[in-house]
Amino acid sequence: MLIFDCMNLYDLFVKPYESYDSLQIMLEASGAIFGILSVFFSIKKNIWVYPTGIISTLIYVYLLFNAGLLGDCMINVYYTVMSIYGWILWAKNSEDHVHVEVTWATQKEWIYAALLFILSLALVTFIYYYKPYIDNQFSMEGTSLGLYHLDWANWMDVFTTSIFLVGMWLMAKQRIDNWIFWIIGDIICIPMMIFKGLGITSVQYLVFTIMAILGYVNWKKSFKEKKVQ
């Protein structure tokens, strides 16, 4: 039984990387490390959440572009743009240019969040519809447009991308509610990344889940302490 489990772990976390070169493995590991650092800084309400997060997403932009997965690459470009937006907002709202104060989202912001989620679903679905064309170096030769090529992981990717974008927007607004979206999205991504053969990234999302729970608790505690003052 132990040998069987070890073989499963080998197939999930080692075998997919046998065809990768050392640079690819090093970059994916670096992307995961910077991603974890980004979440750590966000827990601390530290503006360094954005520089480290941008490095992580840009690494994945490079990896996905080289892999020919231009549709997924464009989604990570979208993440990068949202991170720059958040960085600008935090810089404006920080008294010491490093830390920010947090609060709960208003009812109006929840309506905006719902609209952003729907728009993100439409945008990501649109990208996936044209993904065969994009991945074929923007050529229609031998390419059929549509969503026929999507498996369950791709559909989950559409869903989680929209969840994360709402989370990023709420984080940019310094809203405690953002962590709820990160927790949900991270949990979904763990099996999804294993299915995609990205073992290192699946472990990253497990760490993200734990850190997001800590972030929620920490921001909530910080808000209560601020109210007492």
Automatic annotation (TrEMBL):
Membrane topology, as annotated: Multi-pass membrane protein
Gene Ontology CC annotation, any one: plasma membrane
GO molecular function, one term: nicotinamide riboside transmembrane transporter activity
Record key words, sorted: Cell membrane, Membrane, Transmembrane, Transmembrane helix, Transport
Pfam families: NMN_transporter (PF04973)
Record keyword Cell inner membrane present: no
Subcellular location: Cell membrane
Transmembrane segments: 22-40, 47-63, 69-90, 110-130, 152-172, 179-196, 202-219
InterPro entries attached to this UniProt entry: NMN_transpt_PnuC
Keyword Zinc: no
Predominant location: membrane
Family of the protein in this entry: Belongs to the nicotinamide ribonucleoside (NR) uptake permease (TC 4.B.1) family.
NCBIfam families tied to this protein: NMN_trans_PnuC (TIGR01528)
Function as written in the Swiss-Prot or TrEMBL entry: Required for nicotinamide riboside transport across the inner membrane.
Protein's UniProt name: Nicotinamide riboside transporter PnuC
Organism: Chryseobacterium rhizoplanae
